[in-house]
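Notebook B, p. 112. Complex prediction, attempt 2.
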Amino acid sequence: MKAVAALSPEEIHEAVFTMGRQARTAARALAILSSDQKNAILHAMAAELREQSAEILMGNAKDLAAAEENGLTSAMLDRLRLDEDRLEVVAGGVEQVAELADPVGDILDERSRPNGIRIQQIRVPIGVIGIIYESRPNVTSDAAVLCLKSGNATILRGGSEAIHSNRAIALALQGGGEKEGLPPYSIQLVPFVDRESVKEMASMDDYLDLIIPRGGKGLIETVVSLARMPVIKHYDGICHVFVDEAADQEMALEITVDAKTQKPSVCNALETLLVHEAVADKFLPALAERLAARQVELRGCPKTQAVLGDQVVAASEEDWGTEYLDYILAIKVVSSGEEAVAHINRHGSQHTDCIVTRDEANAERFLREVDSACVFHNVSTRFSDGEEFGFGAEIGISTDKLHARGPMALRELTSYQYRVRGSGQVKDSPR
Amino acid sequence: MKAVAALSPEEIHEAVFTMGRQARTAARALAILSSDQKNAILHAMAAELREQSAEILMGNAKDLAAAEENGLTSAMLDRLRLDEDRLEVVAGGVEQVAELADPVGDILDERSRPNGIRIQQIRVPIGVIGIIYESRPNVTSDAAVLCLKSGNATILRGGSEAIHSNRAIALALQGGGEKEGLPPYSIQLVPFVDRESVKEMASMDDYLDLIIPRGGKGLIETVVSLARMPVIKHYDGICHVFVDEAADQEMALEITVDAKTQKPSVCNALETLLVHEAVADKFLPALAERLAARQVELRGCPKTQAVLGDQVVAASEEDWGTEYLDYILAIKVVSSGEEAVAHINRHGSQHTDCIVTRDEANAERFLREVDSACVFHNVSTRFSDGEEFGFGAEIGISTDKLHARGPMALRELTSYQYRVRGSGQVKDSPR
């Protein structure tokens, strides 16, 4: 393989499309592997990740050295860094995926028609999935093995800053898997990091059935604007908690504090709190006290300011649409459940939104009218997660409405096929 | 509304985006209508279509006059033409949709977690669906009412040649529906036919959740290359029948003749026949005789030519990938089931493919290994159809693998939402 600088656009095109053709062939072989075969492959991959740990950590050290030279922030360096413990988590994750139920072959629907034909709707793999991601090298393994378990081939395109780590991990996965019969080219990593490779992937809809971008909004936007095939997007989580007038105050305090502070950097963390005006006078001061103890900055509407005084700064219009991922909380007092729902549907990101209330009718109206992937009643938004839902590992939380919505795990990495069996039925002469 | 020529690109942008905003508001209202309300609306629409038949036929007469002036072919004129009988079919179709089960609110999955949270996965409408279609004015009604029954708002953009028919039909649907409480702007027709309007629709991913193009390959390609939101494609049907060595010869003849000739102009008609070499000498002459009686042109591989002589012309490589939609059949003799599967996966369009055989093992291998939306055993490909599958009316047959594959009816016009109920669960302090 030539150095990156030496590759012409034509060579990149040829290289990426060759990977596409190879992946398509691999996908046909993968689609008919049994669950036992796939699980044996996964265990061999986990073993090889452990076997190759020295090589992987050496690759990671190269990436870290380059990153430091390039002045990456310490948060970025931390995302990039692997060590024995983190690598063990990656290998253990592969074994966990082996334990999950295989969705392929599930019968989704079954019916017989009056003319005697029998119709089965059966889960089958999607085919070839492109994963385009940024700095975390563990995504190389996490994404590839979920796709593999669901019978799909993958083409992985990681960030330039993790290229040596990603190469070593992909090599271990493919090499380990082949010992147990993994078809060649089932897991391929784009071996260069030219931006042109993303464009080429986005254009090859004959070979890629789906692209999942995992990363910031800029990356997702780029992929969406280029892609000719379906893209499943994992955009922001601007999550809300609505404290209804009939809320249990202590429960509302616990859920709000948990949703905001238990891990503020993730997409299912709380960003905007809505409080019914009937309880604002009592609830807000109690909340401000608990959040002050955790150094949370409060940004409120005028009514919130009237209650909390200098414990809160004025929220701007922009705050209602901001995913802080930080110790900051926007607060708005609303005069009704309808206003809460309207605010969420207008400013939210259709990710996860919660009502806290003892009133069943208010709860049911909220659950029905809020147009989000996950709507919660008396549960912290932090439970919006594939593992918490009992799906096992997740590839992300989709903010799309087509194909996959909310936590996206093995089932969402499958398509289906209709298998129809008859005894010679024709349209012309009924028999 | 100004005449088309007078609209600037900015005015078109503003008009289409205004429709988008209005549709989003309508969709929220539609999502919470009960099945009874929606059915009452559908019956009122059917009544209004009948009530307005004179206006609709007058609009259609205008379109037909313009089309004749523009020299459209008689086949195109026939697609465009409405009369009392055809309009009654359209109105009756609306009533049939009222009879179908409402998918909204169906519980797809339900589970409780060890921490006590209860998770329901519930069908909900998608939101706003754009339909971009060509000359048939009945699509205006057929598509809009399927979207309505599944709780979605629609923005319809029909072909210029049917604009007066489409306007009159859309007016009757919206007007009739409003008598029974249809939210305003639930069904909107783009009132001008500038090409710019397709571009604008494809760009407004804030307001359109999905676009379904219904028409030729050129139209679909244009939408795919422009669209920022998901597109569900209904591409060609290059359908195959494979006559296995263990086929019942009479059944294979009947299925082949039916699939090819019962209605050759549709996507589930047969285009390429594959015959196992062990039975080619016996099967092909019998088939040629039956097809000759129906004036079907045969294009064969060299082995087919060796058997049929001058009853067949030589097939070119291009024939294997052609959707004739006509009285033409491509024929290839293959030496094994594997070769048949490989041919179909390479040249087919993943629509509908059939094996005729008495051998169960051969059949099951074929069903599992052919990567098509519909795989049939001993059934004519002409049964690949939403109504034949028992789904009721269909909006098309998807050749995509994401979200909807194969016959696409009401269920496929829905998304889902997770509704989670708890008793104050938080991550920090387990309770």
